[in-house]
Structures are given as structure tokens and as C-alpha cells.
Design brief:
The chain is of the alpha/beta class. Strand 1, helix 2 and strand 2 form a beta-alpha-beta unit. The N and C termini lie far apart (84 Å). About 2% of the residues have low confidence. Bound molecules: alpha-D-glucopyranose.
Length: 426
């Protein structure tokens, strides 16, 4: 064969162009995987999945893999203790509960997000963010769902008996005593089982009587007269007035109490914002449910616990840049609006509280906005879990008639002092 320099050069050019095209094609189609770990209910997961699909369309080079955990916060917490504690690289983004924040940040498990958010964007979030997502001056998480405790009530039944929405606990008990028997419904459903939900309810009861657990200076103030009245009242709702079911202390969590209410078996329910949408979708409840602030004691103010959920990045993640892209998208006003419209999650951006379409869909949004101004934050401590375990155990003992409020509060105070000094020494 005769050597033809022109042809050879042309062939080489074709080969080089061909190789380059193949290389760039594979380079462009190479995807980075971001693992997003989230514990939530079935409907919540399905809405999050649809948001993720949208994210992937907009970011074709990033693929998101969901790691779905059980909904109860305590079970998720165990998962993170073992995985993050073992410095896993298998998780990139996590949805974390407010109460784990200080523990995870102090352990060095969260990547700092300083520098990811500009000051203007940071200021567009509700102010509670600066208390719940900042540890030792560094931002480590972005608030995603501004959950708070609310009072759900059967509007139709209160109207039938010509009663107003209760402002005080006494009003609530009176309404229960009047309506429960003739209507064959439980009076007040709330979360009394020994778990984190009970701590939230306790803080709301004591907060509405001007009581507390730890003050701003770090002093333990659980053994107080205000708390004694409030804890005694929690007990009496079950055993004295008998307006709450007897299994409140052994069975009632968020979902078990919601199911009873949604089946038409309760007059009042204390629960989080997600319950609203589920009631609207239910033909049995649609149009019958109202929402208000929780009642208060005569000398106190209504108190709601902040149950916010936040997005954070695992400090050991290999894909921090991509992980941040996902957080940025999921916490954008647009994504938050979707979550509010479909799941009645309370937005964490100020501006959405003035969105007319959202206010129409979630008529209680102004109540959430009001409650958020003075919301009860559970102690933001690296050893919160120890605090919670003590509270859960002793409050539950009162509810199950194993001890008195007096003894329980004294014991809690002493045990909290012990935990505090143990952790301050270390
Ligand atoms: C909700 C709250 C969370 C709280 C939990 C208790 O999920 O959002 O903050 O710890 O309930 O059960």
C-alpha cells in the first residue's frame, strides 16, 4: 500500500476528534451521587421525592439517592449516633431535628456552612435560625421546616355547643366535660408516652404557666411551683378530669393521637403542623377542623415548642459541593412553598408568611408566625439527650401514677444538676 501523507493526517485528525468527543461525552455524563438521609412519613417522602426529581432535571450531573429512616425522632437519632460516630462517608445530606444540632456540631459531625449563604439570604430566614443552627458562632444547618405545637379542634362540635375556642386550660377542660360524653369522643388528645414527644408537651404545659427547665444563664429551674401546677394538671387531665384517654402515658405519640382525632374520636388534639393537610384530605374531617394556639394557665401565655427540622452536611462527605446544591434547592422559597402546599410544613423563610396562595391553603399560618416570635426552644445543649431521658422518665412516672409531681420534679432537678456538672467537668 502506498503511503499517502494527506490521507494519514486526515485519518489522525478523525481519530483525535473521535477520541476527544468520546472523552467529553463520558465526562459530561459522569454523575456525582449525593446520599440524602431523611426520616419522615410516607406522604412526606413522596413529596420530597418529587422535589428531588426536579432537582435532578436542573442538575443533570448530580444523582440523589434517598436513605429513608423511620419517622420517630428517637429512632433516627440512634441511626445517626452509630453512623456519624463511625465517621461514615455514606451520607452527604441529613435532615436533622433541632435537638440533635448541638450534639452533632460539637462532635464535629457537621460541615460548616459559613460562606455558603450570603448575609441577605441568611436574613431571609426566621430569627430562630440564629439560635438553633449556629454553634459557637458557626452556621452548620439550614432550617427546612419550622414545626411548632398547635391546638387542633373540632370546629363543628364547638359550634354545635356554642363554645369558643379555649384560651385557658380551664376552658378546654370545661368544653371537654360538656361535649365528650354526648358526642362519644375523647376530650383532649396529646403525646404522653415516654419519648421525646412527651418532653415537647411538658415544655408547652409548663411554659404556659411561666415555668421552664433551664434558664438563660444555664441554671436548672425545673423544681418550681409553676411546674408543679402544670405537671399536676397533665396528670389530672387523665386521672382527675378524665378528659384524656388512660393510655395517654403508654400509647399516645404524634401518629396514634392523630389517628384517633382523624377518625372522629377526639374533640381537641395537640400536634404539629403536618396534621392540617392530612385532615383536609380526609372527607371525614374536611371543613370540621380549626387550629389555634395552645391554651394557657391564668397567669401565663400560650407556649409552643419549636420542632424545626434542618438540613446539614456530613463533615466526612466527599461531595460537599453537590450536597450544598441540594440543600440550596430544597430550602429555596420555591421548594418550601411546595412543601407547605402539599404537606403543611411551616416555611422557614419570612416572605412565605405573606404569600396569599399559601395563606389561603394554610389559614393558620399567621398563628404559626405569631407563635414563632416567642417559641420555646428545647435546651440547645450537646448533652440534650441525657436531659431528655431524665425528663421523659420522670414525667411519665407521674402520668402513670408511679410517683407524685412533687417527687418527680425534685428528682429531675437533682439528676439534671448531676448531668450538668458531669458534662461541664469534661
Ligand atoms: C416532631 C418535631 C421534633 C420533635 C419530635 C418529637 O417531629 O418536629 O422536633 O423532636 O416531633 O416527637
Amino acid at each position: 500500500m502506498k503511503f499517502n501523507p494527506k490521507k494519514t493526517i486526515l485519518l489522525s485528525v478523525y481519530i483525535i476528534v473521535g477520541l476527544w468527543t468520546t472523552y467529553t461525552f463520558f465526562k459530561a455524563s459522569k454523575t456525582d451521587e449525593v446520599v440524602f438521609s431523611i426520616g419522615a412519613g410516607t406522604k412526606e417522602i413522596s413529596i420530597v421525592k418529587s422535589l428531588i426529581e426536579e432537582f435532578e432535571v436542573r442538575n443533570p450531573a448530580i444523582k440523589v439517592k434517598l436513605n429513608v429512616l423511620p419517622a420517630p425522632t428517637d429512632q433516627q437519632h440512634h441511626f445517626y449516633l452509630t453512623t456519624l460516630g463511625a465517621k461514615t462517608r455514606e451520607i452527604d445530606v441529613m435532615r436533622i431535628d433541632t435537638i440533635w444540632f448541638a450534639e452533632f456540631a460539637s462532635a464535629g459531625w457537621l460541615a460548616s456552612l459559613e460562606g455558603c449563604v450570603n448575609p441577605e439570604d441568611r436574613a431571609s430566614f426566621i430569627p430562630v435560625t440564629e439560635k438553633t443552627d449556629v454553634f459557637r458562632g458557626h452556621l452548620y444547618a439550614i432550617p427546612w421546616d419550622a414545626n411548632i405545637g398547635l391546638l387542633y379542634y373540632r370546629k363543628d362540635l364547638l359550634e354545635k355547643y356554642n363554645l369558643d375556642t379555649p384560651h385557658t386550660w380551664n376552658d378546654l377542660v370545661k368544653a371537654c366535660l360538656k361535649i365528650s360524653s354526648p358526642e362519644h369522643v375523647y376530650g383532649y388528645l396529646w403525646q404522653g408516652k415516654q419519648y421525646e414527644g412527651l418532653v415537647c408537651n411538658f415544655i408547652e404545659f409548663i411554659g404556659s404557666n411561666d415555668g421552664g427547665i433551664i434558664d438563660d444563664t444555664g441554671r436548672i429551674i425545673v423544681n418550681s411551683e409553676q411546674n408543679k401546677v402544670a405537671l399536676g394538671f397533665m396528670h389530672d387531665l387523665i386521672w382527675e378530669y378524665r378528659v384524656s384517654p388512660q393510655n395517654t402515658h403508654s400509647e399516645l405519640m404524634e401518629e396514634s393521637s392523630r389517628h384517633l382525632f382523624q377518625q372522629g374520636k377526639g374533640l381537641f388534639l395537640r400536634n404539629w403542623t403536618y396534621v392540617w393537610e392530612l385532615c383536609q384530605e380526609d372527607p371525614l374531617m374536611k371543613g370540621k377542623v380549626g387550629v389555634s394556639l395552645l391554651p394557657k394557665f391564668p397567669d401565663g401565655n400560650p407556649a409552643s415548642v419549636y420542632g424545626g427540622w434542618h438540613l446539614a452536611i456530613n463533615a466526612c462527605s466527599k461531595n460537599k459541593k453537590q450536597a450544598w446544591r441540594l440543600i440550596e434547592f430544597l430550602t429555596s422559597p420555591e421548594a418550601q412553598k411546595e412543601l407547605a402546599m402539599h404537606l403543611s410544613w411551616a416555611p422557614t423563610r419570612h416572605a412565605l408568611y405573606n404569600d396569599p396562595e399559601l395563606i389561603q391553603k394554610l389559614p393558620f399560618l399567621p398563628i404559626v408566625e405569631l407563635a414563632l416570635k416567642d417559641v420555646q426552644i428545647r435546651p440547645n445543649l450537646p448533652y440534650y439527650q441525657w436531659v431528655s431521658d431524665i425528663l421523659q422518665k420522670h414525667i411519665n412516672k407521674v402520668l402513670s401514677n408511679q410517683t407524685s409531681s412533687d417527687v418527680a420534679l425534685r428528682t429531675m432537678n437533682a439528676k439534671l444538676e448531676g448531668v450538668k456538672s458531669e458534662f461541664s467537668e469534661n
